[in-house]
Amino acid sequence: MNALSPYADSFNGARVLITGGIGFIGSNLALRLVELGATVTLVDSLIPEYGGNLHNLTGLEDQVRVNFSDVRDEHSMNYLVQGQDYLFNLAGQTSHMDSMRDPYTDLEINVRSQLSILESCRKHNQAIRVVYASTRQIYGKPDYLPVDERHPLHPVDVNGINKMAGEWYHILYNNVYGIRSCALRLTNTYGPRMRVKDARQTFLGIWIKHLIEGQTIQVWGDGLQIRDFTYVDDCVEALLLAAASPNAHGQIFNLGSDETINLRDLAALMVEIYGEGQYEIIPFPSDRKPIDIGDYYGDYRLIRGRLGWMPQVSLREGLARCLVFYREHRAYYW
């Protein structure tokens, strides 16, 4: 972003706290904030299942402060929010299947800890600005496409219900207590530093791993399910715009893309970009079929109109960058 960026001066010298800061989106956000002159503190539990990876901080080791804490620890959060200008609240349990197998842990991380974080802000730093990473998963199976922010919410799994509650707590604390908060409903964010050893963050990660390893990509169902994707640099841009703009306070925004693609064509595109590989269409696993949402793509006109955000990185370009990154750094992400 050049000097004419709407947030060019918002973060220079600012104190910024990122929960989930050693994870996929958090580390990419930290890189950008350091470039913008912010003083950055990263909070991460490094619980193996949740995506934190110390290699994500390569090149940043001496430029950020790292606090190894769990967001479920309210005493740590009471301390960490003090004196911060911005909080990017990215910590969460993201696996839909894990939420079904272990709903109580998902509840603790995605609901109770979110309420605790907001209470820390209310008690110790009411001037902080908060951006919460929500998810399009809370819409469930769409009633219509593209999905806008007025679409009914009917999540199909425990994770979606809990993320919905976490989101609404942020809006409530904005409206009642004046804790300036907003939420971004992210959709299939991908890019360097994401978890690829399994599908806990996104199915695209395990597809990339299998492609590089020479394994067959497995596309479930008929492969005609439509999706949209957000490259991580575009996601970071949206987070920064939302944090810096008063127009975001108390708002909920969809992210989205100008490109949609079905999963069969996505697998074929990845094979084409990589130059080798193969995919197969297989039936849904029995535990996945009940929570599949069918087609989804979002309407992002609200954030475009309010904050001026538009995606910049094409799907082809983003996938190409991913494949280059993981070929080079596979030892740290497998």
Number of helices: 10
Mean of all residue-level pLDDT scores: 94
What is the H/E string?
EHEEHEHHEHEEHEEEHEEHEHH
**Side-by-side strand order of the widest sheet:** 3-2-1-4-5-6-11
Report helical residue fraction: 25-40%
Q: What is the gyration radius calculated from CA atoms?
A: 19 Å
Largest sheet: 7 strands, parallel
Number of strands: 13
| Poorly predicted regions | none
Structural class: alpha/beta
Strand percentage, roughly? 15-25%
Query: What overall form do the CA principal axes indicate?
Result: globular
Distance between the termini: 32 Å
What does this structure look like?
With 334 residues, this protein is α/β, with parallel strands linked by helices. The chain is 39% helix and 15% strand. The protein is built from ten helices and 13 strands. The longest helix has 22 residues, at 103-124. The model has no long low-confidence stretch (mean pLDDT 94).
Features:
about 325 residues; alpha/beta; 10 helices; globular
Task: Give the SSE map.
Layout: E1 15-19, H1 24-35, E2 39-43, E3 64-67, H2 74-80, E4 86-89, H3 96-101, H4 103-124, E5 129-135, H5 158-177, E6 180-186, E7 189-190, H6 203-213, E8 217-220, E9 226-227, E10 230-231, H7 232-244, E11 252-254, E12 261-262, H8 263-274, E13 279-282, H9 301-307, H10 315-333
Parallel strand pairs: 1-2, 1-4, 2-3, 4-5, 5-6, 6-11, 7-10, 8-13
Antiparallel strand pairs: 9-12
Helix pairs in contact: 1-7, 2-4, 4-5, 6-8, 8-10
